[in-house]
Amino acid sequence: MIRPRKLALRALLVPFVLLLTASPAAAVVFSNASPIVIPTNGIATPYPSCISVSGLGLTTDVNVTLNGLSHNFVADLDMLLVGPGGQDAIIMSDTGDTGFAYASGGLTITLDDEAAGPLPAFTQLTTGTFRPTNYAPAETFPTPAPAPSGNSALTVFDGTSPNGNWCLYVFDDSDSHGGSISGGWSLDITTGTTAATFRSLAASPTARGVLVRWNTASEIDTLGFHVYREVNGKRVRVNSKLIAGKGRGLYTFLDRKAPKGKLVRYWIQVVNVDGSRTWYGPARVTKRA
User: What CATH number matches the domain at 26-192, 2.60.120.260, 2.40.10.240, 3.40.50.720, 1.10.3300.10?
Assistant: First the structure.
């Protein structure tokens, strides 16, 4: 069983990042068309299947497409996506009940957080677009896969750099049934930029809560900022009103309701005057006493 490491109490200082371009958001597709062969029980071949991404700005949206999925007991399948920064999402697990996943050339499954509904739990899987779905029970993946966070939403990758290797771990956790993803898989990545230049971002535990501090070197057409707390891959805004931009300088926010004893990350959402929003972060506090 894979267990996450116990980490010491610390605040992580995010290094300086300079982004002064003003290009609009753009979606780019990256693919690995090599087949993924799924055994009757155990890890797929290859394990993992990876896609290399380069030349992009910060991620604002990620979708995943499985090309040619076929399997005669879909509920056996568990799939873990791991991004270049180590963020992860169980994008498909225990879905479809006993339904078959067969069609001419296999099924084409797109996983998109904005889809109308999740993958089915008790009916046959069909070609279509669905939200990433992880039904109970909790899953573990054989090495070299990392211990999953338990998150399934692809928003966990928003605000991170997409450049590097994205790896898909496919695992069949029961006997007697096999299959394949004959056409491999692809990533649809949308990126954006921010006109705010950050020097640093840090989150520090205090007796009254977690103090989030960020420092900007410049702000061009920046209306202000929101602070988001992330726990178990889910982000929640913690400031009630927009924190107005002031051109540049140090900002602070005290999160008085930060949970204790949990891995917590903080993100800054930049709100621009044209209504666009981009992310910066995360800063991590691993444990609050």
Answer: 2.60.120.260
CATH class of 196-285: mainly beta
Contacts of 145 (CB under 8 A, 6+ apart): 2, 47, 48, 80, 82, 169, 171
Q: What 3-state DSSP class applies to 34?
A: coil
- pLDDT tens digit sequence for 136-176: 888 899 999 999 998 999 999 987 889 999 999 999 988 77
Q: pTM above the 0.85 mark? A: no
Q: What letters, b where the CB count within 10 A reaches 16 and e where it falls short, cover 175-202?
A: eebbbbbbbbbbbbbbbbbbbbbbbbbb
- The single-letter DSSP state of residue 65 is E
Question: What single-letter amino acid sits at 21?
Answer: T
CB-count exposure of residue 101 (10 Å: 0-12, 13-18, 19+): buried
